[in-house]
Amino acid sequence: REDHPGITKEIIEVLKKRIDPQGVIEYRIQEQGSHRILIQVPGATKTEIEALKNRITRLGKLEFRLAASGDSPEYKDSLEGKQAPGYYKHWLRKKKGEEGEANKWYLIRNKTEISGEHLARIYADRKGIEPVVGFEFDAIGKSKFGQLTERNIGKPLAIILDGTLYSAPVIRDRIPGSGIIEGNFTQDEVNELIAIMRAGSLPADLELEMETMVGPSLGRDSINRGLLAGAIGGAFAILFIGIYYMGVGWVANSANALNIFLIVGAMALLDATTTLPGIAGLVLMIGMGIDANVLIFERIREEKAKGKPVRAAVKAGYEKAFSAIFDSNVTTLITGVILAAVGTGPVKGFAWTLILGLIINLFTAIFVTRVIYELFLDLNWIKNFSMFKLIGISNIRFINYRFILVAVSGACIIGGMTT
After folding, report:
1. Is 159 domain-assigned?
2. CATH number for the domain including 296?
3. Is residue 215 domain-resident?
């Protein structure tokens, strides 16, 4: 629209909140040409596509309007077929399973008293056994709603969403600023309405111009290649840890396996889609888990070299490695939170994998492996920590080589950004 050049960007922001608020499904929503929006949905079924189209195209416009009471002159005129100035006839939404046209109508005022822009909270609720949508206004909305209901006791208040009249309860008393929307909903309908209303209303109608479905072979091939690359890299890392650190290395590998299992389970719980950025985040978490265990092992090695017994060396190793592990995880977690907040599509999916992985990794590296070692020590299964040591010098003055190291790091970063 010429009078509102930024309307497409506004719609895109609302759609992002509606269809992927957490960013774990990794829908791609972008402007394409003049007043067109392209939405790419990976790995969705036909049922999911239909539900998505309904969620996209609905305006999400909530209105509260007064209705004429049954004994008012306007209502009586309408019954006699006369036009009531300032009012229009609106049929109530049909009940579930009801055939034919709706059989109850209300005489609704043309004026919108309060709109959904003042809603502060939308939530699922129940009235008896019936699912309903609960709502609560912000400070401005509470004031307006309280005044409206106080001045119009005895009149019906119509609740209209996207032009559909869901209910028109009679105002019995002043309502401070909250209520429910009834409409003979199913639980799925309640969840759908909540998702739409929480994201806000669209500033314009959307029309489906074209719909295409791309075969999964190309995307599946990319995913398979990504999984293969991750599996090969992970296998090499697991073998190295297991061989170099011997028995304790396989304890770390077991913790990493649990790490992967918990991350994948958490992503499945969030109904996340498997994409290449998500796989990259998962592989990164394997590396972070191995890094944490290496820090612990090397600290234990140092404590053993000082002549401490195994149990004391394990205790001191974990205590001294904790600060480095915690610091690296927290700094990376901050990066992940920033990416999740400002990123879109695949970036957001990578960020969520990163965040979940860091939290789970901290749990498995610090708690799970420690419990396993303590158990093995109590059972007398571990009498000594045997590890290889390829590098004899542990006190390397890296600061002396800072310029070379910075140059090499910079070259790697630039190379990664340009390839």
Report:
1. yes
2. 1.20.1640.10
3. no
Residues 21 and 48 in one domain: yes
Please list the residues that pair with 40 across neighbouring strands: 28
Quote the mean pLDDT of the chain: 81
pTM: 0.54
In which residue are the tokens 């596509």 written? 49
392 by DSSP, 3-state: which? coil
Over the range 315-329, which residues count as b (16 or more CB within 10 Å of their CB) and which as e?
Answer: bbbbebbbeebeebb
Q: Is residue 213 part of a domain?
A: no
Query: pLDDT tens digits for 351-377?
Result: 888 888 889 988 988 889 889 888 888
9 & 156 share domain: no
Cα 274 to Cα 152, 191, 240, 371, 382: the distances in Å are 53, 24, 27, 32, 40
% of residues, the chain, pLDDT over 70:
87
Give, in order, the Cα–Cα distances in Å from 46 to each of 1, 60, 85, 270. Answer: 32, 23, 46, 20
| CB 119, CB 136: distance < 8 Å | yes
Q: Nearest to residue 165, comparing CAs of 182, 145, 144, 142?
A: 182
| Count: domains in the chain | 3
**Same domain, yes or no, for 30 and 65?**
no
The number of beta carbons lying within 10 Å of the beta carbon of residue 100 is 6
What are the DSSP calls for 279-311, one per residue? HHHHHHHHHHHHHHHHHHHHHHHHHHHTT--HH
What are the angstrom distances between the C-alpha of 36 and each of 7, 10, 68?
11, 12, 41
Buried b (16+ CB within 10 A) or exposed e, 21-46: eebbbbbebeeeeeeebebebbebee
Q: Which domain holds residue 128?
A: 60-199
Q: Residue 43: left (phi > 0), alpha (psi -120 to 50), or beta?
A: left
Same domain, 179 and 228: no
Query: Is 70 exceeded by the pLDDT of residue 3?
Result: no
Q: How far apart are CA 52 and CA 353, in angstroms?
A: 24
Is 313 a domain residue? yes
Domain's final residue, options 58, 75, 102: 58
Q: Whole-angstrom Cα distance, residue 221 to residue 227? A: 10
Assess whether pLDDT exceeds 50 at residue 383: yes
Residue that finishes a domain, picked among 9, 33, 58: 58
